[in-house]
Amino acid sequence: MAETTTLAPVMRMQNLDKVYPNGTEALRQLYLDVYPGEFVSLLGPSGCGKSTALKIAAGLAEHTAGRIQRPGEDEINGVRAKAGDIGFVFQEPNLMPWLSVFDNVYLPLKLSGVSRKDAGGDVAAILDTVGLGGFHESYPRELSGGMKMRVSIARALVTRPRLLLMDEPFAALDEITRNKLSQDLLQLWKKTQSTVIFVTHSVFESVYLSNRIVVMAARPGRIIGEIAIDEPYPRDASFRLSPVYSEHCRNVSGLLARAMES
What is the rounded distance in angstroms from the CA atom of residue 94 to the CA atom of residue 89? Predict the structure, then answer.
């Protein structure tokens, strides 16, 4: 993990509120700094504002009060983030069914004005990285659920974002596929050197993936604590069976229980 004392955060939320027009208070006084190279999980019960915070981080939703600084932004000088500085992986793959795997991944580059020819090398490289090198011309209907999610991750990574936001991307998958993709995601994270914010409901998933877990409570959504997972990478199946993994899971479960009672 990066040294938070010497590096500026990739993303900073300060005193962030989100209130919907009907008066529902989704977030209250959210403070969160995420530093280069971190893998941070947002964990909490349904309705605690995890996905809302992630969408605000991505610029897909507006906050009501407070400040946020995203990769490449400088609020003082009015500099805004560049397209591609942030990648987003949704709960569903959201692939275009009429496009091939290659063209689904190429889409963000196309929207940025990069020609298909010029993008070819980058698209091919990221498909190789996610294990889909032989599926360039396949269509979403021909892929399994796990493969579709790999395409979605490749699409988010093809712009080489400084910050990768992931909103429960493995929630709809079976446990075997989910565990395999979690392991693959850690390899991708190390290879691409991205900074990741990962939303999940799963204590076990958060402990396996993260070097920091931020726990949120609901009504209104707020952070009640965080736990560092200071265990070395790479992590594999043996880590899930280790006593230290079980201990971390107990500690995180205890904090999550407090969140659900708050």
Answer: 9
Could you please state the CATH topology (level 3) that the domain comprising 1-85+162-262 is classified under: Rossmann fold (3.40.50)
Give pLDDT, residue 107: 96
Cis preceding linkage at 45, omega within 30: no
Which of 156, 139, 157, 161 has the alpha carbon at shortest distance from 148? 139
pLDDT for res 77: 45
Written as six digits, the tokens of 187 are 């390899």
Helical spans, DSSP H, in the chain = 50-58, 101-111, 116-129, 145-157, 175-192, 203-209, 237-240, 243-261
Cα angle vertex 76, ends 74, 80, to 5°? Answer: 35
Sequence spans of domains, the chain: 1-85+162-262, 93-160
Distance of CA 2 to the CA centre of its chain: 17
Q: Which of 212, 210, 206 is nearest to 33 (CA)?
A: 212
* Sign of the torsion formed by the C-alpha atoms of 176, 201, 38 and 244: negative
Parts of the chain with a pLDDT under 70: 1-6, 73-84
Full DSSP string of 44-112: --TTSSHHHHHHHHHTSS--SEEEEE-TT-BTTTTBPPPTTSEEEE-SS----TTS-HHHHHHHHHHHT
- 139, 96 contact by CB (below 8 A): no
Cα–Cα distances (Å) from 179 to 175, 184, 186, in that order, read: 6, 9, 11
Q: What is the pLDDT of residue 46?
A: 87
Q: Are 56 and 65 within 8 A, CB to CB?
A: no
